[in-house]
Amino acid sequence: MDSESRPPAPAEALSAAAAGTPRPSSTRPWPVVAWGFWDWGSAAFNAVATTFVFTVYLTSSSFGDETSTSAALSWALAGAGIVVLVTAPVIGQRSDASAHRKRWLAVNTAVVVGALALMFFVQPDPAYLWFGLGLLAIGTVFFELASVNYNAMLAQVSTSRSVGKVSGFGWGMGYIGGIALLLIVYFGFIQPDVGWFGVTAEDGSAVRVSMLIAALWFALSAIPVFFAVPENAPLVAHRERVGFFGAYGVLFRNIAKLWRESRHTVYFLLSSAVFRDGLTGVFTFGGVLAAGTFGFSPGEVIIFAIAANIVAGVATIGSGSLDDRFGPKLLILVSLVGLIVSGLCVFLFHDGGQTVFWIFGLILCLFVGPAQSASRTFLARLIPPGREGEVFGLYATTGRAAVFLSPTAFGLFVTIGGAQYWGILGLVLVLLVGLALLIPVRSAGRRG
To answer: Which residues contact 442 (CB under 8 A, 6 or more apart)?
Structure first.
């Protein structure tokens, strides 16, 4: 085992722990559950806003033709990605240094909740398209920044031996929260002719009121983490205060140091940027494909989303033990292969209609969550204590650096094939490239 992949010696570990917030000696249930409830609430943005409800609403005929609205959606998300690209690692670095991780999690979460609430005012009219896309972009930026601090908290609620289970629990809570919220949205507002509080589909009211419910859902679910998880300790090495732009100089020096000391961590950040963008593409374009290619109605899209979240949630929670036992890299590799095969099956057998999408779409969902969770734990096992925010900021940044890949590949293959379902091959190609880049990366194995 070489120096780039070996676990730290005990003296090194103690020295690193002294520089910042050390891992707890045991995994306590309440902090883990409270931490997981933020993921539970995040379904309000991930499932309702960006995947199955609001983006489907914005790309409907009420806002223009499918091609132009889908292109506008891609541009809005790409712009949000650029903002995250240049800000996430510095935001994470400063939260490590100042011991204000919870404060910034609260601020960023509040902005996302506000963006969700303002989506209520997006009328079904082309004049409101960019207002809706702007809110979606703002929500995306601040959700990513909140996730930097949230992911960094993983080291504060898990031990070296339980990090896989805890991470899988968090992702699973997100999927289960998505199920619960989508059930409320579907049966309360979208499916009935007259929903709760007399809401109907007229003027997009069913979707718009659903966004208010999503905002309330996220706000309430985020509260426990602020009481159950202690604030991080400041990183001693970063106690010297620097300005926002000066922090970039510190960042570049730290990246150079990371390249010298743990080159395979950098390789992993690059490879994960590609395959995580493929995973994001699966979510972003999944609902669009269901409606545009396979003829799902808005209500049927939500029913599929509920089933997909059940499958993904169970698989993700179950995968945590496999992560701790066999290591995250093997789990990611198996998941990516499963995603590629099931995606190809959706493309090849698309003439089978909704049945094909149901079968292979749900098989695909078995692998999405485990790949996401194991990617987070792979990195968590490598990060020196006290630098979680900074490195997870780099994790967010590298992910956003590749944010153009899935939309570009999707659009390119749609253009080549002349039909929307050809975009599936674009997503499969991104996942395949990510898989190829991951294979040579060496893992540190289990720490502790």
So the answer is: 2, 4, 5, 264
**Which residue from 113, 108, 98, 94 is spatially nearest to 150, judged by alpha carbons?**
108
Query: pLDDT-based confidence at 393, cuts 50/70/90?
Result: low
Q: Which of 66-80, 153-167, 365-379 has the highest mean pLDDT?
A: 365-379
Of 55-64, 73-82, 107-116, give the lowest mean pLDDT range: 73-82
Burial of 237-260, coded b for 16+ CB within 10 Å and e otherwise, reads ebeeeeeeeebeebbeebeeebee
CATH at residue 264: 1.20.1250.20
Tell me 99's DSSP state: T
pLDDT average, residue stretch 193-211? 86
3-state SS, 204-261, equals HHHHHHHHHHHHHHHHHHHCCHHHHCCCCCCCHHHCCCCCCCHHHHHHHHHHHHHHHH
Residue 420 belongs to some domain of the structure: yes
Is pLDDT above 50 for 301?
yes
Task: Answer whether residue 158 is part of any domain.
Answer: yes
Q: Is the pLDDT of residue 114 over 80?
A: yes
Q: What is the model's pTM?
A: 0.74
Range of the domain at 217: 28-225+242-438
Per the structure, how many domains does the chain have?
1
Does any domain span residue 233?
no
86 in any annotated domain: yes
Residue-by-residue DSSP string for 117-172: HHGGG--SSGGGHHHHHHHHHHHHHHHHHHHHHHHHTHHHH--TTTHHHHHHHHHH
